[in-house]
Amino acid sequence: MTKMTLSLITMSLLASANIATASDSLATKFNLDPAKAPAQNFDMSNWKITLPELETEGSRKGKALEIAKPELSNRETPYVHPQWFYTDPQTGAVVFVAPNEAPTTPNSKNTRSELRAMLATDYGEPKNNFVVASHPDAKEYGAIGGELNATLTIDKVSSSGNYKKNGAFAVVIGQIHGSKNEPIKISYRKLPEHEFGSLAWNYELNPPKELQNAKDSNGKKLRKDIRHDIFGQYNLREGDADPQDGIKLGELFAYSIKVKGDIMHLTFTKNPGEANQVIKTYDIDLAKGGYQGHEVDQGYGNDWMYYKAGVYNQCNTKKSSSDCQWRGMEAGDYAQASFYQLELKQ
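Structure for Polysaccharide lyase family 7 protein, as requested:
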């Protein structure tokens, strides 16, 4: 055996040892047990999850698979899906996976492996959702405000899609959803040729009920997203420079969405806990309306809301949407994220 061969073997063993050490370090840092199911490492007591395959029996037969919170949070017989929702065997992180094409919920073209906060058990019950402090019927709801904290890595986004569509190569990893629209949706987007991806958040204008589907004189919906770059730039196109201030696949970052009183406090942290940590914050009055001068926006002061977290793949095969491909999981046509911290307070 030559010295070069021995050197290559040594380098390979060292690399494997470094990966194992890093995995052990993450498991220790976040107090995660790789041998346990998600509900045994994370508090799932106020969540249910939607997964990208069909129910095969019962009242939801033929609809996207949904695991209700009693089953999801059961620590004695915890729920795991080997493909869409499971524990990383090295780090203990909870892994969410959503392919480019699979069964979806009725009002979406995109697949999801995504948690939905459930403060009660019935969708139609006010106690199931939260409101801001100034809501006129605040006492009828499950909570006033709340907080979602997450630390995660994006492991995979689709490598196919229409560069002119912001949904291509993108995934949503955290939201607050209202009765119709979203005061916040956090997305990550990385072009195939880039090393770095971009993290952004959207505020969706919330028009009066009668104008929810109305359009302006240019034929564009009044109900639209106002996007904010955090790290990188959300709307990069083919040929644009790599966003050096962005986040790589597999790179740890964190977000916090805290609603206190009427204010939504957002915190985004790149390289959390490291010497080169970068923190960006935003404060938004959810009850005020008229976001950034858009008079059509009524705000969310009279609306009810709920948190969501996981993977909501923005890539789909519709040409009118992101025009991504579906060649199977083996070809990498899916989105994946690993959460090391996932904490809901309400």
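The two ends are 62 Å apart (CA to CA).
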